Amino acid sequence: MTQSLNKFGLIALTLMLVAAGIFFLLKEEVPTLYINEFMANNASCCPDTDVDKDEFDDWVEVYNPGKTPIDIGGMYFSQDKDEPLGYQIPKTNTALTTIQPGGFLLLWADGNPDQGVLHLKFKLNQTGEYIGLFYEDGRRIDGLKFDKQNENTSYGRTSDGGADWKEFSMPTPGKSNQ
Predict the structure, then answer these.
(1) How far is Cα 177 from Cα 168, in angstroms, rounded to an integer?
(2) Would you identify the CATH topology of the domain 31-168?
(3) Nearest CA among 47, 31, 39, 41 for reference residue 133
């Protein structure tokens, strides 16, 4: 009896390990995307023209350095690195939420998601906070904690997707950082 229980336990353990291995191998790789530039204190620069009159909203630019388009619909933006499933980008318009290879996507952090799929349900805090982009299952794609932001000045990577950051007195939303 003990010998048959041991065989059963060994078979069960083997099946669990095989299942875990298959799950690990089939799990999608997190895409390479970068929060490339953002503005958290937009008073008169870079208007959001998605409504009848120009609005000067906060914004976040995402960069795709890869060789294939990436749809960010279904991914999340969060202002808390410990709570990655903050605001899910709608999956309703892949034409708008897909970033072409080497391309940029501008999202408005205006607290008005009813204005369209490129509008986040939160605003950025100009005194500083964390902002992160997370995969559909909560794995971190990119994120940063920033300090107080100056009016009409963006903060971005010195080169697209690079490690170093600086202030831009001439912001480049939706374009390569200069």
Answers:
(1) 9
(2) Immunoglobulin-like (2.60.40)
(3) 31
Residue whose tokens read 């010195």? 158
Q: 87: which 2 tokens?
A: 């605001």
Tokens representing residue 39 in the block: 């503005």
Could you report the per-residue pLDDT of 104-124, keeping only the tens digit for each?
Answer: 999 999 999 999 999 999 999
pLDDT for 58-103, tens place per residue? 999 999 999 999 999 999 999 999 999 999 999 999 999 999 999 9
Q: What is the 3-state secondary structure (H, E, C) of the chain?
A: CHHHHHHHHHHHHHHHHHHHHHHHHHCCCCCCCEEEEEECCCCCCCCECCCCCCECCEEEEEECCCCCCEECCCCEEECCCCCCCCEECCCCCHHHHEECCCCEEEEEEECCHHHCCCECCCECCCCCEEEEEECCCCCEEEEEEECCCCCCCEEEECCCCCCCEEEECCCCCCCCCC
Q: How far apart (Å, rounded) are the C-alpha atoms in residues 162 and 178?
A: 12
